[in-house]
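Inputs:
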Amino acid sequence: MKKDKLLELFNSLTLEEKIGQLVQLNPDFLNESDTVHTGPISSIGIKEEMIPYTGSILNSVNAKQIKTIQKEYIEKSRHKIPLLFMADIINGYKTVFPIPLALGCSYDFKLVKETAQISAKEAAVSGIHVTFSPMVDMVHDARWGRVMESYSEDVYLNNQYAEAMVTGYQGTNDPHNNIASCVKHFAGYGGAQSGRDYNTVELSKRTLLEEYLPAYHSAIKAGCKMVMTSFNTIDRIPVTANKWLLRNILRNEWNFKGVTISDHSAIKELINHGIARDEKEAAQKALEAGCDIDMMTACYANNLSRLVKEKKLDISYINDAAFRVLELKNDLGLFENPYRGADEDDEKKYILAPEFRSKAREAVEKSCVLLENNGILPLNSNKKIALIGPYGNSKELCGMWSFTVDKDNVITVKEGIEKYSNNVQYCTGSQILDDYQVVKELNSLFGQEFKNQELVDESLELKCAKEYAKDADVVIMALGEHSYQSGEAASRTDLSIPKPQMNLFKEIVKLKKPIVSLIFSGRPLILNEIKKYSDAVLQCWFPGIEGGNGIANILYGKVNPSARLSISFPYHVGQCPISYNFLNTGRPNTKENIGNRFVSKYIDAPNLPLYGFGYGLSYSQFEYSKVSLSSKKMSMDTVIEASVIVENKSEYEGVETVQMYINDVVSSVSRPVKELKGIKKITLKPYEKKKVDFIITNEMLKFYRCDMKYDSEAGKFIVYIGHDSLTNNEECFELIK
Ligand code: NOJ
């Protein structure tokens, strides 16, 4: 529709109809039957007469249902303005990929973009218009359950992934292939204090601007059409009512023209935050601050028109926000075709297409991180295998957000391994958890029955596990946290593998058989004992529907692992939050300070994580030459080329992710000890060498200086190029201004 027609349509709307565009409800509200309304309506208390004006629907996820709702809605609506259908398509729709944190470990932005393209295709033909993804919240705390949805603890990686996901989803805005992307949770949600979900965030303005905001900004620069506000406060003001963030930063500085939406119930929660007396005041504060759509509360629906009539709210706030929603609908082509890509035949044709599955398998192969290997891997197919542990034959491999997956399509580890060996004995060995209460809560929320099959006779299982282990050449232990132990509202203070599984592991260790441990989790777990007693450890995350195939391909050497940790694995939960890019402090815990009590350290644990950022093994052995710089001096308008020669000293062809970090030695504010500034992926044949170079630019050296100006400062810099964030392969240069 042309803009003047859209304006004409908009001007013909009543105030209530405009407000309706700012209301998002779940599909139950629009169900034909009146009785179905009772539950949700009474729970959020929305005025019945406002329901028909609702502008968008949350989490309705198949073509048939979406088409029915849309058809009935349009038939009843005076202006025939279609509904927008939005859903949480996080790591895939039916072709479920590894969780975002796992994809973050691929360091492969092209691959990540391809996963988003496939998700968009499947979601588009199923009638979905907008996905609440990507989530690019910076995260340094493994206690926070939502680390699984994040890509990384690092600014550079988060920027790249944000761009890859947004461009992957949105593509050319083709109704049959693309959907709109909603970046979330703006802003700083990953900084929740104590790693507790929904908790307060306390960040300095400098850290917020420099580390937390850039990824959202990258999403916007990539054309992202929607932004979700976060639950947390920033500078004690909840983001959903934070004018500085929603207007000054997002609209004025970043020039964002799209739609903003609150997170679920966040407008009403302004009352709990203690910044609004009631729903009416909450509605006013949120809209004035710049939050366009109210997700799943009655605040806007019940109060905005009253606020205008009482002359407390300028109508322009409603007009601007509602018109943005109509523009988005128009941009997606809904006025021409309200069903957009929704097509049951296309659903059958494209969903889970073989090429989608093979991309999912590639994603598993590129995101499982090999943490330990004493040479036991890759396995030889002749070896007799005991596969033990609750993840050995589990289909629960997709993570908490994959409520659209059909679990029958998941390939288990057992199924994957059996493609290589007919000598596998499997038993579950133990339950995942000793106490299932936490899981039951989520099951009931998702309308699912608690799965009793998760309960096993542990003494029988242990007996069987020991017998199989004794009889085997190699024991593969498939262990981890429950998939509902990470994700939303899944913060943990104890990051160990649940007790029943650790007991099982210890019993198997006593048998002194070679052990390959596969770890399934949505977050870094504490793996000290697993490391100590395993011959190899593969961090598998929640790998999605092709998990079993991808993992088996790594175990048997069809694929050489190449993934790198995009987040630190703490040595002890007490180290959280932890990340590689910390500040030095006045009393750094350096080698020179060994034996000195009065430095910044723990007396009962190291400062460093068990496995650091950027770390990950391969079956190849890579060796680095010293860093060489094209010049030791750089001016504002020149660049330096930094290079290394990397050599594959093994018989395996492999992929190495070469990482460049920079440290600004002296500046007007304290700077991180290292910051990732670039990566290069190279494939090296056995014994092949390659030169890898990076260009260092002035842009890379900028930061928020003491005067809050974003710029570089003259002086000495150290550049590091190596295998991971612990590299000390360094060289210095000077920036002259
Ligand atoms: C709450 C979550 O915080 C958010 O990430 C999600 O998109 C919404 N619910 C909608 O389901």
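Confidence is low (pLDDT under 50) at residues 33-40. Flag for discussion at group meeting.
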